[in-house]
Amino acid sequence: MTWTVAPEPYDSPVAAALWRAYYTEVSDRWYLLHEGRRTDPAELEREIAAHSGADLAPPGGRLLVARYDGEPAGSAGVRLLDRATAELTRVFLHEPMRGRGGAPLLVRAAEDAARALGVARIVLDTRGDLVEARGLYARLGYTETGPHNNDRYAEHWFSKRLA
């Protein structure tokens, strides 16, 4: 069984399916924690429509898809914030694929994509309940920093210098 990571158009069917799975999981986790319910289907559709991923298209961004034995398993996006900084976003692996080494591979590929965009630093935000993500970023050398955005769901911000 092998992993591959490659660029993917943000508007491809594969990207759309991964984005839907990502948003459903993180949204459901938030609502279950804070309101004891899953995401309202109408809200899910509104949010997916409002966040197309166009900011992950070249030349200012990249969407990467991880495949496990050729099957789409996860994604990560990188978008330029300024000339020196890129943001890592939409890092996701389908639950059955977790623990098989795909997440570090995907994040490292995103870092390589950020370097190719010419930046020296990559930042990201995440929530407190996404403890797996926070652990992954710490293991990969990200340092918790102060806020770089005002996203209403962001509770932790990380940064990493890219060599």
Automatic annotation (TrEMBL):
EC annotation?
A: 2.3.-.-
- Residues annotated as signal peptide: none
> SUPFAM superfamilies from the xrefs?
Acyl-CoA N-acyltransferases (Nat) (SSF55729)
A GO MF term:
acyltransferase activity
Metal-binding: is it a keyword of this entry?
A: no
Which UniProt key words apply to this protein?
Answer: Acyltransferase, Transferase
Domain of life from the UniProt record: Bacteria
Q: Which Gene3D superfamilies match?
A: 3.40.630.30
| InterPro entries per UniProt | Acyl_CoA_acyltransferase, Bact_Acetyltransf, GNAT_dom
Query: Could you tell me which residue ranges the N-acetyltransferase domain spans?
Result: 17-163
Going by the record, the broad EC class of this enzyme is transferase
Q: What is this protein's record name?
A: GNAT family N-acetyltransferase
